[in-house]
Write a structure and sequence with these properties.
- The protein has 2 domains: 291 residues, Alpha-Beta Barrel (TIM Barrel), CATH 3.20.20.70; 122 residues, no CATH class.
- By secondary structure, it is an alpha/beta fold.
- Helix 3 links the parallel strand 7 and strand 8.
- Strands 3-13-12-10-9-8-7-4 form an 8-stranded parallel sheet.
- Bound molecules: flavin mononucleotide and iron/sulfur cluster (SF4).
- Iron/sulfur cluster binds next to helix 11.
């Protein structure tokens, strides 16, 4: 195994190893502090993180306001407090070693406010900000104004080119690195474009060489590229190390760090990771963000898949093809084809008696219980995203609604991620994971269910394991 050259990340020479930020509360102050202690880079998640008061007491999120837009404001305030407390924890744990980053999603609700208020109140504690999910043009000016390095997460050279041209070229001093996240392999939300086939993965190597070419034309010869997605053993990436076509490189891992002692996720989630088999992770598009994402198959994902199957195209006007009348929601009527009518009869017999419209001129058939659950989730929506297909929330429009029909094929990602990271049921929650997660079961580091410390994981990575 080639020795790994250290890299300058966020102003300090550190190991080229980065803990990927993981929301909600899957990477936090403690885990990121441990990565930094090992002279690497730890990243805590800035997505509604857990808040601890000055006495170290955990304060669960709570919402008092009746109106959604006011709850959105409460969410911004609580998330900011959470970010500040996690930054302090990370700093204390790290003892000033390594680097501490925060991860935010550009399309999370109130991202700009949360980031600005956090950086304002954590001077010297946070050294870098990684940010994906969307096109974070403003990231550069925000971070530069606080003297903090920024790390856009992209899945193509083209995306970086657009960010550079419009914004980052004006703030190049604080561009700390560019994360290339392989959209076919990485856990969490994935940046597949409309022209890319989720079923046909593309080799990251030529895509990263292309990214480096674009970066060189911008004078970014020495700015590190951070490879994320599918990184397991570094011996498998030896060709990338010291490779002039790639240039300075670091590696970001998201899935492997979940199975460390410092990782905040509950034991039953960690144990589940040890039993995964190949193809137990599914790339799908149920997230209310509209992005693809990769998560462990379970009853929850099967339920979403089955619900999407119980779908039929409908028209508001009767026609030769759309000849069969159905009731949609409480009061609307529509027309579906005779062929679909036969299917719906079967669905109704199984208890899926309610037809709900989607934004794509289709209806899905769900149970009465599910209708009640949707309503309850939508009523307590806190606007955790900038736009949400499940609740039609939009922070951009004057009346805080996208004006689209709420999509019953999706779900409240805030509830599911929050409950999962706080000890929730493995069958009903959402567990993001990368497509290599099945390797936990056979990797000798985890023999007999052994869970390493962050330091042990890093020691193994350094020798190529
Ligand atoms: C449970 C989980 C949650 C994640 N959440 C986020 C997130 O909130 N923001 C983000 O930028 N990336 C997120 N990611 C992606 C990771 O930061 C990392 O880039 C990715 O997992 C790397 O690929 P790997 O899973 O193959 O190691 C998440 C990944 C996982 C597994
Ligand atoms: S419905 Fe849930 S996921 Fe969607 S914006 Fe509201 S809180 Fe977030």
């Amino acid at each position: 195994m080639k020795s790994l050259d250290s890299v300058i990340i966020s102003g300090r020479e550190v190991l080229p190893l980065i803990e990927g930020g993981k929301g909600i509360a899957v990477s936090d102050g403690k885990s990121s502090g441990a990565w930094a202690t090992a002279n690497a880079v730890g990243t805590f998640s800035g997505v509604t993180p857990d808040y601890y008061d000055e006495n170290g007491n955990f304060i669960a999120e709570f919402y008092k306001k009746k109106i959604r837009k006011e709850r959105h404001q409460e969410m911004i305030e609580q998330a900011t407090s959470g970010c500040i407390s996690q930054a302090k924890i990370a700093h204390d744990v790290s003892g000033g070693k390594g680097r501490i980053h925060i991860n935010v999603l550009w399309e999370m609700g109130g991202c700009e406010d949360i980031l600005i208020n956090t950086l304002e109140n954590t001077k010297g504690l946070i050294h870098g900000v990684s940010c994906g999910a969307g096109m974070p043009y403003k990231l550069a000016s925000i971070c530069s104004s606080y003297g903090v390095y920024y790390y856009p997460i992209v899945s193509s050279a083209r995306a970086f080119k657009a960010l550079w041209k419009r914004s980052y070229s004006k703030h190049s001093e604080y561009l700390g690195g560019v994360v290339y996240e392989d959209p076919w392999n990485a856990g969490g939300h994935n940046g597949l474009s409309n022209s890319e086939n989720p079923l046909v993965p593309q080799d990251p190597y030529p895509r990263v060489v292309e990214l480096r070419k674009i970066m060189r034309t911008a004078g970014l010869d020495n700015t590190p590229i951070i490879m994320a997605g599918g990184v397991w053993n570094l011996s498998e990436w030896e060709d990338w190390i010291g490779n002039p076509d790639i240039g300075a490189v670091a590696f970001q891992l998201g899935t492997r760090p979940i199975l460390t002692r410092e990782s905040p996720v509950a034991e039953h989630w960690k144990n589940r990771l040890l039993t995964l088999e190949k193809n137990d992770v599914l790339l799908q598009r149920f997230s209310p963000t509209g992005f693809y994402s990769s998560a462990i198959k379970n009853d929850f994902l099967s339920m979403l898949e089955a619900r999407t199957q119980r779908q039929a195209a409908f028209k508001e006007e009767k026609s030769e093809e759309f000849s069969e009348e159905i009731r949609i929601g409480l009061s609307k009527t529509g027309y579906i084809s005779a062929e679909d009518k036969l299917k719906t009869t079967e669905w109704i017999k199984k208890g899926y008696s309610e037809a709900l419209a989607t934004p794509d001129c289709t209806v899905v058939f769900v149970s009465k219980e599910e209708v009640r659950e949707f309503k309850a989730s939508q009523v307590k929506c806190i606007g955790c995203l900038s736009q949400c297909s499940f609740s039609s929330w939009s922070q951009y429009s004057e009346n805080y609604s996208s004006g689209k029909t709420p999509d019953p094929r999706s779900f409240c990602i805030h509830d599911t991620l929050m409950s999962m990271s706080h000890g929730g049921d493995l069958n009903t929650g959402l567990m993001f994971a990368g497509h290599n997660a099945y390797r936990f079961a056979t990797d000798s580091l985890y023999t007999n269910g052994y869970i390493p410390t962050v330091q042990e994981l890093i020691d193994n990575l350094l020798i190529g394991k």
